Amino acid sequence: MSPDSDNSAWKAKNLTSIHERLKELYEAKPFEQVLPGELQGVFIRKLEQTIEMYCFDNESKQLSSIMSRIDLETPLCLLGHYTQVMFLSAFWRSRSPQSVYMAGYGGGRIAMLLQHYFHNIQIDGTDIDPNVLASAQVFFGMDKKDMSNIHLGDSREDLASRNTTYDILMLDVFSGGGEHVNHLATKEFFELCKSKLADDGILVANLVEKDPLMNAKIAAIRDEFQHISVWEHNGANVVFANDHAIDLDVITHRIKGFTKQEKPSFPTIENMTMIKPYNKQNKAKALRDSEL
Asked: How far apart are CA 251 and CA 232, in angstroms?
């Protein structure tokens, strides 16, 4: 499995289009902008050649960690370490991904790379904040036509309504001051996720150690999927879950091929070596809807 090697001309044209959409921002002076909203606020700032997006709770005004960021000079470089790792889910299977669902679309950073390297991929998804979706286009260079299947609303309700079977399900769902969304991490929700995945599909979820329910959420994933691997770094946890037997060495080989061909400007093989089978003695019970 490799990216679309026969589309080199299209990739060059696509990258040019991305730069054109970001040109005004690239030339702009540093700025800060607050986007108020009913659910939460969004804070955008430009520092030198980087755009960053944060969310904040309307009552406490507590600012989240960075939700999305982009290097305007090298937009195909993923700056967030965990986003670099989540992108690797594209190589978990023997064939190129054709369909992806993204719960928590954010600034569309991973979507931009998937659509660039896998030209005909279908990306569905949601974000609950209209200001976030608008920011993906205004500040992060996403093309409106590439977001035609991205809906405003709750990811659980939206996923349940879709009739597509997905190769990858990406869950990156935080809100307000950076709290993980609990109803998108229960046993019942992961049952839904499993029903929407292809037989060789992969679920990848971004979790954080500071969440007191993190172990219960991993237990909920473990109850539904046979194989779990985890990347851990500085309190961040990216969980990979699937039902088909995997060989991390084989996945690493695929990523080496991608890296040799595409020469991405962020570490791939190094990140892959940090992904390990989940062998922790997690005694937590799976989080259930009834507990929320």
From this structure: 18
Domain count, the chain: 1
Please check whether residue 155 is in contact with residue 103, taking contact to mean a CB–CB distance below 8 angstroms.
yes
Whole-structure pTM over 0.85, yes or no?
A: yes
Range of the domain at 93: 5-291
Angstrom CA distances, 56 to 83, 131, 135, stand at 20, 12, 15
Q: What is the chain's mean pLDDT, rounded?
A: 96
Dihedral pair phi/psi, residue 64, rounded to 5°: -75, 170
**What is the distance between the alpha carbons of residues 199 and 89, in angstroms, rounded to a whole number?**
15
pLDDT band at 177 (very low <50, low <70, confident <90, very high): confident
Cβ-proximal residues to 212 (8 Å cutoff; 6+ apart), any chain: none
Q: What is the CATH number of the domain that holds 179?
A: 3.40.50.150
At residue 2, does pLDDT exceed 80? no
Instruction: State the residue for tokens 């600012």.
Output: 63
Q: What are phi and psi of 240, to 5 degrees?
A: -110, 130
Residue 181 has pLDDT above 90, yes or no: yes
One DSSP character per residue, 7-22 reads GHHHHHHHHHHHHHHH
Which pLDDT belongs to residue 151?
98
Residue 27, class by beta-carbon neighbours within 10 Å (0-12 exposed, 13-18 middle, 19+ buried)?
A: exposed
